[in-house]
Amino acid sequence: MILKDNPTVKEIFVDYIETHFKRIKGKIIRFYQRITRGWDDSDTWSLDHTIAKYILPRLKRFREIGRNSCPVLHESFEFDRDFEEWNEILDKMILAFELIVDDEKSYFDNLNAGSDEEMGNYIEYSEDRNLKINTGMDLFCKYFNHLWW
Asked: In sequence order, which residues have a C-beta less than 8 Å from that of residue 3 and are 6 or more positions away?
């Protein structure tokens, strides 16, 4: 018999079965967690990404339907001016969350940057991207209590 004569094949087969059952066990555990608490532990692996994926579509919809909500942004409130500025603030927040959600894709797309010029472009892109994310997150924190209508 092939398994008896070749321990390497036996080891590979046993390893494959063990790995397969570990994956099934993990899927069962995550399924149970989703049923009992609405999320599973894998959501915490990249929590910033998970939260951004949750917030992004809601923030976009808030901008679409929040036609009458606008915080007072200046001492002399003028609805049209403040509303336009509020939408610009929301756009910066949305862009920040979009960049976070797309982070994994953009990271792997640029991981194999070959030449020094490509790497320089990636570094410049990363710095610009991080600035936009930080600006949007600062605005999100500052205006968090104004996200209602």
From this structure: 9, 10, 13
Tens-binned pLDDT, residue by residue, of the chain (149 aa): 455 566 677 788 888 888 888 899 989 999 999 999 998 988 888 899 999 999 999 999 999 987 667 777 767 777 777 888 889 999 999 999 999 998 755 555 655 556 666 667 777 788 899 999 999 999 999 999 888 87
pTM: 0.71
DSSP assignment string, 7-31: HHHHHHHHHHHHHHHHHHHHHHHHH
How many of the other CB atoms lie within 10 Å of CB of 51? 13
Nearest 5°: the CA angle 65, 149, 43 is: 80
Distance CA 131, CA 125 (A): 10
Share in percent of the chain as helix, strand, coil (round to 5): 80, 0, 20
